[in-house]
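Hey L., structure's done. Input below.
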Amino acid sequence: MKNLDDPDRKIIELLQRDATTSLELLAEQLSLSVNTCWRRVRRLEESGIIRRRVALCDAEKLGVEQTVFVAIKTRDHSEDWLEAFAKAVIDIPEVVEFYRMAGDVDYVLKIQVRSVKDYDRVYRSLIKRVDIADVSATFAMECLKNTTELPLKQ
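Output:
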């Protein structure tokens, strides 16, 4: 679905802000019938544009307020190593984002933990599972912006 029309963009915009918005309220805000709105939402979900609806939780209130960005370099760029590494990372619940990069760093992880000591536990569990050439951790001091809302081009 390359070409989203204005109602589709508005549905996505509203659901990105609050996925619990009812079909009735969406329909009202878009001046559409509930049935038309439902069909549009279903089409957006079936096409994969809307992948899932989730609850966004407060990390501090859940006790995992320390955000750590981890840059990883490897000597091994084989498919087997990547498969083992990806499995190891995906199995760690504290890793909330995981990227393969271009440039000087091979991978970047975003980790949510309770403390530096808790990060060390996660780090040790990872290096036990896979051979890594270099690991560099950066600890966030303050979050200035955090959103899951993707920009919608007009």
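The first strand starts at residue 66 and ends at 73. The two ends are 14 Å apart (CA to CA).

-- N.
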